[in-house]
Amino acid sequence: MTETRDNRPEAVTPMIECRGVHKYYGDYHALRGIDLTIRAGEFFSLLGPSGCGKTTLLRTIAGFEDISSGVVLVDGKDMAGVAANHRPTNMVFQSYAIFPHLTVAENVGFGLRRDPRGKAEKAAAVEEALAMVGLKGYGARASHALSGGQRQRVALARALILKPKVLLLDEPLSALDRKMREQMQVELIKLQRQVGITFVLVTHDQEEALVMSDRIAVMFEGGIAQLDGPEALYARPASRRVADFIGVMNFLPTRVVGDTPSGTEIEVPGFGRVEIPASNVSRANPDDDGPSIGFRPEAVSLVAPGAAGHSHVAEGVIDEVVYYGDMTYYDIRLDGSDGFGDKVRPVRIAMRNVFGREVQDVGARANVSWSPGSLVLFR
Amino acid sequence: MASANRSQAAQGLSLIAPPLGYALLIMAAPLLTILAYSFFKDGYLTVIREFTLENYASVWADPIFHKIMLRSLGVAALVTLVTVLLAFPVAYFLSFAVPAHKKSMWLFLITIPFWTSYLIRVFLWKVILGYNGVINSGLTSVGLIEEPLTFLLYNVNSIVITLAHAYAPFAILPIFIALEKIDRSLLEAGRDLGESRAMTFWRVTLPLAMPGVVAASLIVFIPVIGDYVTPTVIGGGKIPMIANMIQAQMLDLDNRPLGSALAVTAMLIVAVFSLIFVALNRRFLKVRQ
Fold first, then answer.
1. Which of A128, B70, B167, B274 gets the most CB atoms within 10 Å of its CB?
2. Which of A240, A262, A297 finishes a domain?
3. How many domains does chain A fold into?
4. A311 touches chain B (CB under 8 A)
5. Looking at this predicted complex, what is its ipTM?
6. Chain B: residue nearest A109 by CA?
7. Which CATH number is A35's domain given?
8. Mind listing the pLDDT tens digit for each residue in A96-145?
């Protein structure tokens, strides 16, 4: 686990602390020693493929799963033996879990039963919570008459009305269509800033995590592979696996020539000899494939052969063109791959289709312009 | 769209036509016959086909009918209450405690009582509850009692015990199905929102299981009111219910019009009670999960 960015002073208050958390289901080792600190007031995401343990971790924080060993602290208090109904956390469930026998207002007010306030005050609080999620006046509706997006808003209002220390969101956007999802992403960010509550989001959608989070923990097989801010995670993934999971990354086999005072000198097919700055070198690379460099499709650009003003250029032939409207993806077969065997696959390059730029044809010669700072070395 | 719907409806109708026809034949036809008889005059051993309301008048004026009808309603209500109260924990255990791959085995076990005929099961209860029955001889031999207990058999309690046992599976199954339909995350949501297990059961599980409870109640209540075997065997003929009274009129006294009027009246009363029960629970039945 590396933290390349966001190493702000320890002044930040921890809201959730997991120390050596293990969880077994029989023989299955679902959480393998999670050490994690989630800061008060941040929008934190647990990102990973299905089965990586992210939902299990969220459910241990909520109190729905016991942990086999380790400690979970919420707001400084040990949660061992504290039942879900006594924890300062509230959850937005993947299915939203809207009570079908209750109206919207009854759903939102469900957790207020033991609230000492009077009936009228509670009703006002419900109305206020509904207004906060944009459902003013929906209180009397039957819950089955709601759309997916509205159900989610009800689930949010129902949790936030209790003013929890932490709001846990279990894949809250996965059931929505793309447009609604993008809209809700923005609304969730705004809502989080407005209420200032720590949000912990579980998602398998890397784009969603990048858009919404202050920090992201990428999980594989019950462990945290990298914990970083979205930019660091995207630009400097700690391992090939993380790089592969977050967005698209091209990988090229590499020969390490040697270490220099400021980084590592390597030789890459088509790129020649390059010095990679130390900040872009990842040693947490468990792959047996040998050293490789990675770069994002948009971190390099396609330039016409012979175009001036490009200090680093790799030459190649366009193998495939995929037109996306706003973007065009080119797969380029690079020259000079000799000596690296057939491990070298075409690299994908993304070009924005700005006005006046023509889409290139398959088979045309093309040059790839790059800079050492846009490459990440995994060794 | 409309024509597509119509042809689909026609298709559906043609699919259910055979069972529908069968049901009409064996249900509606006897029902109509009984209805017709109830308005005919009795001519001692014959039926005079002349319209009259006399039968209904004498049914409503008959204090014995009032007593027996009230007893039938009371027994049926008590049996329903006992059966549903006993069936709910079983259904809950089946739905929440039994692992998914063992549920069908458990359901299979619950059907075991059906492997023997209802009549034999009723007689078995007589063997258990009787003067020289299992309970009495057991208690006597242990020395807890000297004289056999007489309150075990030939009374309303024994009728309720027997019927509650006989109808238990009918109550367990609808409640089990209603519980199975409950999204488990709703229960977690109840806990997450600050409620204990008991309060979550009260505020979430029970309201959502009510359609099953209502169905179970009706499935038990309606046939129990008309039960004939148990009052005869377990009640020893001393505490007749409405079916016994109808039987007496129809066969023993050969007064079919009066027997028919009794049957129709009892049916109407059951229908009214059932409708009131459903109406009282309508807010639970409207829930769409």
1. B167
2. A240
3. 2
4. no
5. 0.84
6. B193
7. 3.40.50.300
8. 999 999 999 999 999 999 899 999 999 999 999 999 999 999 999 999 88
Structure tokens at A340: 């690296």
Q: Are residues A236 and A310 in the same domain?
A: no
Last residue in a domain, options A192, A214, A240: A240
pLDDT digits (tens, 9 = 90+) for A249-281: 998 888 888 888 888 999 887 788 888 888 888
Least Cα separation, residue B193 to chain A (angstroms): 5
Which SS3 state, helix, strand or coil, does residue B103 take?
helix
Measured between beta carbons, which residues in chain B are less than 8 angstroms from residue A83?
Answer: 191
| Closest-approach residue (CA) in chain A for B286 | A101
- CATH code assigned to B62-288: 1.10.3720.10
Cβ contacts of B195 on chain A, cutoff 8 Å: 85, 111, 113
Q: What is the pTM of this model?
A: 0.83
Q: Classify each residue of A247-269 as buried b or exposed e, where b means 16 or more C-beta atoms within 10 Å of its C-beta.
A: eebbbbbbeeeeeeeebbebebb
Record: contact B193-A99, CB cut-off 8 A: no
Assigned domain for A172 exists: yes
